[in-house]
Amino acid sequence: MRFFDYIRGLYKVSVDESAARKVLSLMVSAKIPFGSVSLTDDSKAVFSVRKKDVEAVKKTAERACVEITAVQTGFPALITRYKKRLGLAVGAALALVAVVFASRFVWDIKISGNADVGADQIEAALDAYGFRLGAYIPALDVNEISKKIVIENDKITWMSINIRGTVAHVEVRETAFPETESVSEPSNLIASADGQIVLVEAYGGKSEVKIGQTVKKGDLLVSGVIDSSALGYRLVRSRGSVYASVTKTFSSSVKTDTTVKVFTGAEKSYKTVKFFSKKAELFKNIDISYEKYDTIEETERLTVFGVELPLFITTTRYVEYIEEPLTLTDDEALDKARRLIAEQTATELENDEILARYEDVKFDNGYCTLSVLIECVTDIATEQKIQTEQ
Amino acid sequence: MKNKKISSPISPMSVEILGTRELLISGCTGIIHFSKEKIGVHTKGPSVWVSGDDLTLCWAGDGKLMIKGRVCAVEYKGEQ
User: Fold this and answer.
1) Minimum distance, in Å, between the CA of residue B43 and any CA atom of chain A
2) Which residues of A108-130 are buried (b: 16+ CB within 10 A; e: fewer)?
3) A31: which chain B residues are within 8 Å (Cβ-Cβ)?
4) Which residues touch A60 (CB under 8 Å, ≥6 apart)?
5) Count of domains observed in chain B
6) Does a structural domain hold residue B69?
7) For residue range A340-385, what is the model confidence (pLDDT) as tens digits?
8) Could you give the domains of chain A?
């Protein structure tokens, strides 16, 4: 009610405390509504009346020979005060239009429920159907978009898109069970490397090797051809693991006379503003006069009181460096070579049991060459399909 | 045909008290006395006097007045 009173506008009537009773009594008899009456420190009674009743109040006061003052308050008073300032009215109108207009676009996309499928993958899938920051909300058929994305993605079983205001909440549910393996295609397991068999775990097919046997790359380990006197021969899919002791070699070469990057401290940066999907460069014709430089890009999304805006500021920094000659000592070169080999073996030997490791180091012609021989137990079984005549 | 405004008749006198902070008097015809400590109201029946602290008056409809503040006592004076 207070809001409506403010919009409609009220008149604040002020009368001497001594005469207040007379005026209010006459107003009660005349059924003129009035707001709460309060007494001020300077012996005045103040109450509010509606705009349509103010003339009746003035007449009532005149009949009672009482002096009153009536001052307009609320939104109409504000308009009267600022009616000559056209800019304010135009600005207010433009702000209202901007708010109404802006609320018809997607300002933020929040994705939840995904674990294996990355948020950027889901965003890319949505983007393919025009669902992105800055998309016009009335033109989006969210049900159709979510259905199409679920059909196209095996890893997503369900998707829901709810647009609340200008924020799109995308919820997904991923596939709980992995793809089932096809068991209909017959295959053999063959050796992927030379080695000595340590353990055979065959779930399908017939094992053709024994523990302790030496095999070469390409040798048959588990056969998908089962020959039985009762049923004749049949083709099955071979599955399982065959572990063998193998030797793997890795090598890396490091130049002892090398260069090192030294940053001079000089850098230039410039900013790009992105609003929804529209980019604007704040500085044009950037002149990068450095001979060598690194380019570093950082993007920051602006927030106001914790609310993320569809406004991104990208700062691109060009950092100058020079290359200075550097001669590595033998130990430093060897350390570097070991680090390079560690990077190679990290993924390749991840599931292997390492039995022994041998290193061979050579310093020759300004190079440090490190060769590493690793004896390990690894699964050498590789599936090979059996070609059948259809 | 002109639309004639029909004013509702003054309702019979009644006093409704809500706790110790609000009082609604129906059937008011005028105000006898008004101050922060005492408010006297004419009604069709006896006059109603309300005593208390920080009393304020507010219109509440045809012939109805709302008195707010710390109400200590309500008296009826005159014809019952």
Assistant:
1) 11
2) ebebeebeebeeeebbebbeebe
3) 7, 62-63
4) A23, A26, A27, A30, A32
5) 1
6) yes
7) 999 988 988 888 999 999 999 999 888 999 999 999 999 999 999 8
8) 2-80 (3.30.70.120), 108-174 (3.10.20.310), 187-244 (no CATH), 257-327 (no CATH)
